[in-house]
Specification:
This protein is of the alpha/beta class and 214 residues long. Helix 2 crosses helix 3 (56-70) and helix 5 (93-102) packs parallel to helix 9 (204-213). It contains 9 helices and 8 strands. It folds into 2 domains: 4-15 and 87-213, HAD superfamily/HAD-like (Rossmann fold, 3-Layer(aba) Sandwich), CATH 3.40.50; 17-85, Putative phosphatase, domain 2 (DNA polymerase, domain 1).
């Protein structure tokens, strides 16, 4: 039985560019998207460290409100949040997932978002039939990179697994929980931590190659 391939969703399988453009359309600078998502990740880490929990969508909304206010823009605008439901998969995503499934791998997504919103995104992008299971942080009420979501994914697949993600913090969380890892470097470009770098791939096709070579 082949190992499981566990994918992050936003930024790894799906391009975040529509949400980035939505912020720019409101008058924000191109860097505003990263400011928003860094604040969102900070909020997620904070509630996790405090043994509290709020759904990802609520945190995304509060982080967006603060980001817009800091930029002197209308904090009531929700277009960037709405755009997260309309992201497109990277062009090579479907073929990469299909290759993994054809090789006998279980294809799983592990997301900080809800299972329902992730399923809708996958179906909208034509990837729904290529994913065997969706694992959400809602189930353990701890956000990645806390080890609990990764351990749940391992338990769910019942076999060794490799986390494939475009975020260094996600890779480190998976590695700490016992998963093998592949970092897709197309967004961060340089490994962002003073810790041992993982195997790296330029895109999902290259990540599938690395997975299948193991």
């Amino acid at each position: 039985m082949a190992d499981a391939a566990v994918f992050d969703v936003i930024g790894t399988l799906f391009d975040r560019e529509p949400a980035r453009r939505s912020l720019v359309d409101l008058g924000a600078p191109p860097s505003a998207f990263e400011a928003w998502f860094q604040r969102l990740l900070h909020e997620a880490a904070t509630v996790t460290l405090l043994d509290s929990y709020r759904p990802f969508k609520e945190l995304a909304a509060s982080a967006l409100t603060t980001t817009l206010a800091q930029l002197g823009l209308d904090p009531s605008r929700t277009e960037p949040l709405d755009a997260l439901a309309e992201l497109d998969p990277y062009p090579e995503a479907a073929e990469a997932l299909a290759r993994l499934r054809d090789a006998g791998a279980a294809v799983v997504t592990l997301t900080n978002g809800s299972a329902d919103s992730t399923r809708q995104l996958l179906n909208r992008g034509g990837l729904g039939e290529l994913v065997d299971e969706i694992v959400s942080c809602d189930e353990v009420q701890r956000f990645k990179p806390h080890r609990a979501p990764y351990e749940l994914a391992l338990e769910r697949v019942g076999r060794p697994a490799t986390m494939i993600a475009a975020h260094g913090w996600d890779v480190l969380g998976a590695r700490a929980a016992g998963l093998a890892t592949i970092w897709v470097d197309r967004e961060e470009q340089q490994w962002p931590f003073p810790l041992e770098a993982p195997a790296r791939a330029a895109d999902l096709a290259a990540a599938a190659d690395l997975f299948l070579e193991r």
